[in-house]
Design goal:
The protein is of the alpha+beta class and 483 residues long. The protein has a domain of 174 residues. 44% of the residues lie in helices and 15% in strands. Strands 1, 2, 4, 8, 9, 10, 11 and 12 form an 8-stranded antiparallel beta sheet that branches. The protein has a two-stranded antiparallel sheet with strand order 3-5. A hairpin with a 2-residue loop joins strand 6 and strand 7.
Length: 483
């Protein structure tokens, strides 16, 4: 369904049983206005915008789209370890945009009003929260980490109450798919085995068509999702990203990062770092993310038991064997990723101590995670140390000797410069620009967006974006589940 040259919509998800979705239209906002459009991303999606009003009308199902089958998805999830029946409480998919090369993307409107899954909520969102998701999702994308993207922000012209009265907004979010572990948990708990099989077949065909003819489709599917989630979380650890709310309903089957509520970037290194106001026991702390993704994947494996084998005992054995592979897969991917930060192309166990010893030093010396690796790059370039801590000297000598003997400095530097960002969205700067942007002043927001769009390039005049926040700020900083 071509819409005025904007979107090429399809609705393949509606081929699934109706238990998995509910038809719903966006709320009729009082005076909607396009506030921010990601023009570069529109071009990548082959969306040509001649008139912004056309985009607004399409997204809000106005004019020619009254009969278009937009829908909210049903799903469940374990939130902080407890199972809950959920669903898109304030989001609807307005269509699946298919590009000329047949890539398919969900176009979702978040903050679009009540749905059958709102559970008493208003289904709306604040401008500040949507700006935050826009900023963070773009940051992850430019850090070369799979992520949802933000196409546009719409001011709704209506106030929204979240602790205080704030300006309302909706976000146009784009993903390869919004199918999540929680979707399969919903299928396993509330639908038939036949419906579960249809969901599995559909998801594999859409996201992993290369395995669709595999003899044991369920196990191959599980392994594929495990591999992608391990890869994703390892790269979160590489850049110091803390998702903050790794519930199973926020674990995508496609391996994309999404839901940017209480997320943040770590400054001074400590594995127990938590910023989320709702994570009072540190379940989703930085260093816990590998264990949590394993737990989430175990819940995913449980949903697929009827797919693995018709014999329950054999099915359980297949699932357990596959999940038992996680620790070795994680260890391999994690150390491979972290060693690349040190300029070493390897996951050989003889080098693992280099990673572990450095991280222990960073923790003990309360050193900035991002800047430390930039200083290591300078250490190789000039051999003149920028480090003030004598406790680092033995490790530095050991590391440089390893580089000189096994890799060579030129090759090490090339690798380090591709995986160690110069700049991340520093928490204090994020909060500052969001406050200004929410009041209508976008200059600093746009400047930060520009800086973080080139995180691996040395840029002029960005010293303020490189400096970590003061310890007092970090000690009291909290993020909230506002998106």
């Amino acid at each position: 369904m071509q819409i005025k040259g904007l979107f090429n919509f399809d609705y393949s998800y509606l081929s699934l049983p109706e238990i998995f979705y509910s038809p719903v239209k966006p709320a009729p906002f009082a005076s909607p206005q396009l506030f921010k459009v990601n023009t570069e991303f529109c071009n990548q999606l082959e969306i040509s915008i001649e008139n912004e009003d056309d985009l607004l009308n399409v997204i809000l199902s106005k004019n020619s789209r009254q009969d278009t089958p937009s829908f909210a998805q049903a799903y469940a999830g374990h939130q902080f370890g407890y199972f809950t029946k959920l669903g898109d409480g304030r989001a609807i998919i307005i269509g699946e945009h298919v590009t000329n090369d047949q890539n398919r993307f969900d176009i979702q409107l978040k903050g679009s009003g009540k749905t059958p899954y709102s559970r008493g909520g208003d289904g709306k969102a604040t401008l500040k929260a949507m700006l935050r998701e826009y900023l963070m999702s773009e940051a992850l994308h430019h850090l070369n980490i799979p992520s949802s993207r933000s196409l546009a922000i719409i001011k709704t012209g209506e106030p929204v109450y979240r602790r205080t009265l704030q300006e309302g907004a909706a976000l146009v979010r784009v993903m390869k798919s919004h199918i999540r572990v929680g979707t399969f948990e919903y299928a396993a708990r509330f639908s038939s085995n036949e419906d579960l099989k249809r969901l599995t077949t559909y998801t594999v065909k859409r996201l992993y068509p290369e395995i669709s003819e595999d003899e044991n489709l369920g196990i191959r599917f599980l392994k594929k999702v495990i591999e992608n989630q391990i890869d994703l979380v390892a790269h979160w650890m590489r850049i110091g990203f803390i998702h903050g709310v790794m519930n199973t309903d926020n674990t995508s089957i496609s391996g994309e990062t999404f839901d940017y509520g209480p997320c943040a970037f770590m400054n001074r290194y400590h594995p127990e770092t938590v910023y989320s106001s709702i994570d009072q026991n540190g379940r989703y702390a930085f260093g816990n993310q590998p264990q949590i993704i394993k737990w989430n994947l175990s819940r995913f494996a449980e949903t697929l038991l009827p797919i693995f084998h018709e014999n329950k005992d054999k099915s359980l054995a297949l699932a357990q064997t596959t999940i038992d592979e996680f620790d070795e897969l994680w260890k391999k991917k994690y150390y491979e990723t972290m060693l690349s930060k040190l300029g070493i192309v390897s996951n050989n166990i003889i080098y693992f101590d280099l990673v572990d010893e450095l991280l222990e030093l960073l923790k003990r010396l309360k050193m900035d995670y991002t800047n430390t690796f930039q200083e290591l790059i300078q250490e190789l370039v000039s051999d003149k140390s920028l480090f003030k801590h004598e406790a680092l000297t033995p490790w530095l000598n050991k590391w440089k000797n390893t580089i000189d003997k096994c890799v060579g400095r030129e090759q090490a530097l090339q690798l380090m410069c591709t995986v160690n960002p110069f700049v991340i969205p520093r928490n204090h700067i994020v909060e500052k620009v969001l406050e200004e942007a929410a009041s209508g002043k976008l200059i600093e927001f746009e400047k930060l967006l520009s800086v973080i769009s080139k995180p691996y390039h040395k840029q002029d005049n960005i010293s303020e974006y490189i400096q970590p926040s003061e310890l007092r700020f970090e000690s009291n900083y909290q993020t909230f589940c506002g998106t």
